[in-house]
Amino acid sequence: MSQASYQLWGGCFEEEPSNVLRRLNDSLAVDCRLYEEDIRGSKSWAQELHVSGHLSKEDNDSIQEGLCKVEIEIEEEFRRFGRLSDTEEDIHSAVERRLQRHAGEAALRLHTGRSRNDQSATDTRLWMLKSTKNLQAALIDLIAVLVQRAGKEIDIILPGYTHLQRAQPVLWSHFLLSHTWHMRDDVERLEDQHKRLSRCPLGSGALAGCALAIDRHRLARDLGFEGVTQNSMFAVSSRDHIVEFLNWVSLCSIHLSKLAEDLILYSSQEFAFVRFSDQFSTGSSLMPQKRNPDGLELARGAAGLMLGTSFGFSAVLKGLPSTYNKDLQCDKESLFTAYDKLLDCLKVVCGSIKTMEVNKERAESALEPGMLATDLALSLVRRGVPFRRAHHLVGAALRRADTLGVDLQQMSHQEYIAICPEFGCEKELSEVFSWSASIQQYVATGGTSTSSVKDQLDDMNAWIDQIRIKLNSVVHA
Fold first, then answer.
1. What is the CA radius of gyration of the chain?
2. Do residues 41 and 119 touch, judged by C-beta distance below 8 A?
3. Catalytic residue among 85, 163, 473, 476
4. Angstrom distance (rounded) from CA 40 to CA 130
5. 209 CB-side CA count, 13 A
6. What CA dihedral angle connects 380, 383, 387 and 389, to 10 degrees?
7. Are the CB atoms for 27 and 90 separated by under 8 Å?
8. Which residue of 72, 88, 269, 358 has the lowest C-beta tally within 10 Å?
9. Residue 432 half-sphere exposure, CB side, CA atoms within 13 Å?
């Protein structure tokens, strides 16, 4: 065993690993953030060894006390320096070396019946169970900000777009809420992963299981898992939960990117529907007048990076033979990168939306009569004209207005009647050209009418209250 570092292997080796292999192999710089989970798992493992008769009370007490001291040491180092100075290859070796200083010979008994394979798999699952709650909470905060703005700004009308062309008038609140449904699904999809994630691999050994008579179900309960993995080879090799999480991060990032893109467009001078606060804007090094939505652009760009991370890790797993292979060490770097990036993006998008200003007058000035062409067709339908014919007739009216150099609202009643008598009297025709009336006709569930939007708001607010209570109960448990 090297004098420079504490290794968990090496008895049959005469030479040290080369420096270049160590640079590639050592993972402490990445997996050091699992120290709490590694210590927690080690405490439970020692306790299970003791309860099942494989570790004396004295050794267990020494290990438990020593691990508490190790945790305090590491916390202090992170607080002061933001990193660990240990020379060990991974967090498991660093914790055990520190434990030996405090617990002496007892520390050498801790790894009895355990492998780094099941130890690492357990640490990662524990970290994910804890940390994914932070992503859920950040998503819920973003949803709540969107819902709050939708409630306060429920009467603002702006153009709705398809193909980036003006389509129909919609409520600004309806637009905001359209994004909350994507995010609500994201919260629930992440919750659905919990049942597969919450299975404890500890006690699976390197691949064949544990030869000691231990109670894995008791061990799992002690660590807060809902169950255990039922196959030791599966337990140490499966990274399905990480693939599932990275795929989820990618989809969630795509939803953020879509919202960011809409708001980036709306903040441009060509639209000018919204203006972002100084806190979430940056300027140009050359052009003093510039106000750039860099926070949202970075969130939009992150979606591409997260898609790459997700695909890249899946490619690592493709074709691996069964049980543990060192390729799997890549899991934590991908996991932590995706988690950190998404959490920052959620907070930036949330802050950008919370502090932005909406220009109601500018939004409503972008409305133009051509957007009510569908309303004209529906007015004919209400007078008994088949929709396909009504669609054609309104198209003819649009063509005639273009020829005359006017819009639909400016075109005379006589021109309409010449195209189709069912356009009705002048008063009835003029009533079609109302933004408010257009909005309020969409009363079916999911429509843009005020009543429908209020139903959405009630649903979303009730769901937010319910999911926050559930999330808080899990965190406090």
1. 31
2. yes
3. 163
4. 13
5. 10
6. -70
7. yes
8. 269
9. 27
- Distances from the Cα of 232 to the Cα of 100, 208, 314, angstroms: 29, 6, 22
The stretch 73-101 carries a mean pLDDT of: 94
Counting beta carbons within 10 angstroms of the beta carbon of residue 398, is it exposed (0 to 12), middle (13 to 18) or buried (19 or more)?
middle
pLDDT per position as a tens digit, 139-149: 999 999 999 99
Domains of the chain: 19-112 (1.10.275.10), 117-146+170-366 (1.20.200.10), 369-441 (1.10.40.30)
Give the closest residue to 349 by CA, choosing from 298, 304, 424: 298
On whether the CB atoms of residues 107 and 97 are closer than 8 A, the answer is no
Round to whole Å and give the CA distance between 215 and 220. 9
Would residue 163 show up in a list of annotated catalytic residues for this protein?
yes
pTM greater than 0.90: yes
- Residue labelled with tokens 């090297």: 2
* Confidence check: pLDDT of 3 > 50: no
Q: Is 284 a catalytic residue?
A: yes
* Mode of pairing for the β-strands spanning 165-171 and 157-162: antiparallel
Judge whether 117 and 324 are in contact, CB under 8 Å: yes
User: Annotated catalytic residue: which of 18, 284, 430, 436?
Assistant: 284
**pLDDT band of 9, cuts 50, 70, 90:** low
* Residue bearing tokens 């993995």: 229
Judge contact between 68 and 40, C-beta under 8 A: no
Burial state string for 247-266 with b = 16 or more CB within 10 A and e = fewer than 16: bbbbbbbbbbbebbebbbeb
